[in-house]
Amino acid sequence: LKPGQRFEGWQVPSLLNESRQSLLYRLQDDQGQPWLLKTLPDSRHQDSEAGPALLLEEWFLRRVAGRAFPQVHAAGSRQHLYYVMREYPGRTLAALFQQQGPLPLAQWQSIAERLLRAVGLLHRRQILHRDIKPENLLLGDDGELRVLDFGLAYCPGLSEDHAHALPGTPSFIAPEAFNGESPTAQQDLYGVGVTLYYLLTGHYPYGEIEAFQRPRFTQPISANRYRPDLPEWLALSLERAVAAQPAQRYETAEEWLLALEQADRRELSIRPRPLLERE
């Protein structure tokens, strides 16, 4: 598509983003409202899985319709392979962090609770996002927090399951995924944990992980090392969220959300690590 072109009833102002996986164009409807069109680049036209995956991505977004996710346009008859979603003014949490650094505790807690509600809704719909990170979370000018980019989303029984595939950004990928285990909701929650840890500290609980690394996970670094002002319950909560063993993490987003909501009323009922682990 070319800037200024009309395409199936849309005006195309510009190409917003181009990657090996997708093309993203800005659109305007007849009322001048902003939308985004997502389609495939030429390099993926021979990929037999790419087309169905793009349609499945649109279906995921329709299935979780709500304030925490982009609205998908109810397109009529389409002659080409694409889908259209609403564009929202705002900035990603990555851009917010770059501008102001580690978040104040009150702002962080508000974002954490909204993110956990959104991820909990996804999981109740049997959808795993698999790429939760600050770049994929948009804080809109309307105050809403929205989860973006469902390009790696996974639904058991519907999505192609490639053994030993490592989707996502390495620093946000759960330890068990590096061992080839199938996607789970707890792997998503691990990504949420790393995201919230980073927004508070500017660091990663196990250090930054590069794509070529085969990392080893032992004990996460306590967020208190970087933010001495954090209450003990919060540091313990984050340690549990990013524990190397899935059994030691929160089971569901709702369990973690309840812990955060109760934190102001009492110290969290999180058992501290045994003395042998701490010392």
Could you write a compact summary of the structure shown?
Helix content is 31%, strand content 14%. It has 279 residues and is α+β, with helices and mostly antiparallel strands.
Fold and architecture overview:
The protein has 279 residues and is α+β, with helices and mostly antiparallel strands. It contains 8 helices and 8 strands. It has helices spanning 50-63, 93-100, 105-124, 175-178, 185-201, 232-241, 253-262, 275-278, and strands spanning 5-7, 10-18, 23-28, 34-39, 82-86, 90-92, 137-140, 145-147. A 5-stranded antiparallel β-sheet has the order 1-2-3-4-5, with helices on one face. Strands 6-7-8 form a 3-stranded antiparallel β-sheet. The chain is globular. The mean pLDDT is 89.
